[in-house]
Amino acid sequence: MNKNQESNDTFLSEWLADNISDAQLQQLVPKTDFDAYLQLRRLLQSFAVPDADMQANYASIKAKRITANNTEAKRIFPLYGWATIAATLLLFFGLYQVYIFSSSVFTDFGKTMAISLDDDSKVVLNAKSEVSYPLFFRYNRTLKLAGEAFFEVAKGKAFTVETPSGKVEVLGTKFNVISRPGFFEVICFEGRVKVSHKKSTKILTQGDAIRFYENTSETWRELQLKPLWINGESSVRNLPLKWVIHRLANQYQRKIVYPQQLNRVRFTGSFTHRNLETALQSICIPLNLNYSISNSGTIILSE
């Protein structure tokens, strides 16, 4: 720990003990530290440590001395000890909020949601997706994603997206991530990202795309400036029908059945999120497939 950090820690302790005013602290520490201290205090205003009952403590100590025939020295726990414990608990509770993934947002079938993080980065969640992140995100720019999301990252220190399938690390950029069981895809729309999947690492620049599934990896060049699903339309390139159907089901919350031999049929194109019949036609007509919808709402695909 350097001398500046030691001084800041001392000022923090004094401030928590009300020996330094807000105005005095603002003159003693950098603005970023002062803002962080204010956020920590606001968060922990409801946290309180009860004052020590000195009379009860004294009576207890006196009784013990009588019982022990004065063979033990009186132990004194000064008031500043309680202040130290309180400050320590406050600090640890604040660090917990900074580093633990305490905020979580998820979307249902056919829904999207835009989120603004406190470092000015933006996240748009696609249907059936979830993201979790620390409350004070600007101090720990790491979040967890299950599903699909588009990111517009504010420039600053490293920004990391962790998923069950792999990890994406960036500085300031725009990119899309899909992480579903058995499927992982990243498209870089701007800047530069590092994609880690199992034992492999790949650097993507603007227009680069990569996907992993069933022990297969594929790369291609993406011409779009941002994902179409943000505006209500899914677009895929040379994707096995199995994963196209998965995306369709997430938007319309329908059970879809089809012959398993169609799993590896490849589809390039798009479908709307706003009309089921139109979406089915967009997929089935290019692939020469038929579809029907049962009375229960199940979609049946056939050759």
CATH-derived topology of the largest domain: Jelly Rolls
The unreliable regions are 46-52, 92-99
Strand content: 25-35%
Helix share bin: 25-40%
> Main beta sheet: strand number and arrangement?
13 strands, mixed
Structural class: alpha+beta
Number of H- or I-type helical stretches: 7
State the distance separating the first and last CA atoms. Answer: 69 Å
CATH architecture term of the largest domain: Sandwich
Descriptive report:
This protein is an alpha+beta fold. It folds into three domains: 3-99, no CATH class; 103-221, Jelly Rolls; 232-302, Phage tail protein beta-alpha-beta fold (3-Layer(bab) Sandwich). The chain contains seven helices and 18 strands. The protein has helices spanning 3-16, 22-28, 31-43, 54-67, 79-99, 241-252, 276-287, and strands at 103-106, 113-116, 122-125, 130-133, 142-152, 159-162, 167-170, 174-180, 183-190, 192-197, 200-205, 208-213, 216-221, 233-240, 256-257, 266-272, 290-293, 299-302. The strands form three sheets. Strands 1, 2, 3, 4, 5, 6, 7, 8, 9, 10, 11, 12 and 13 form a 13-stranded mixed β-sheet that branches. A three-stranded mixed β-sheet has the order 15-18-17, covered by helices on one side. The longest helix is centred in the first third of the chain and has 21 residues, at 79-99. It is elongated, with a radius of gyration of 28 Å.
